[in-house]
Design brief:
Strand content: 15-25%
Helix content: 40-55%
Number of helices: 2
Largest sheet: 3 strands, mixed
Strand order of the largest sheet: 1-2-3
Order of helices and strands: EHEEH
Radius of gyration: 14 Å
Structural class: alpha+beta
Shape: globular
Distance between the termini: 38 Å
Length: about 70
């Protein structure tokens, strides 16, 4: 599984999500470490992205716009 891989995908927080997902798919990975300014900022998973997109679709445009205008 991904937890045992030594060759970890590392992405920058400024990288476009489509590009990151493409890299993960090409390397048959589902997890990437996200760095910002050379420091670990988080972990991105394809499962987490899918869940986020599902929630966004369920909220609909009106709710989504309110959520991101905080």
């Amino acid at each position: 599984g991904d937890a045992m891989q030594r060759d970890v995908e590392i992405v920058d927080s400024d990288d476009l999500l489509d590009a990151v997902l493409g890299r993960l798919e090409a390397r048959e990975r589902s997890v990437a470490l996200v760095v910002h300014g050379g420091r670990l900022a988080g972990v991105l998973t394809t499962e987490g992205v899918a869940e986020f997109l599902s929630v966004q679709a369920a909220l609909g445009t009106r709710q989504r716009d309110r959520l991101f205008s905080l």
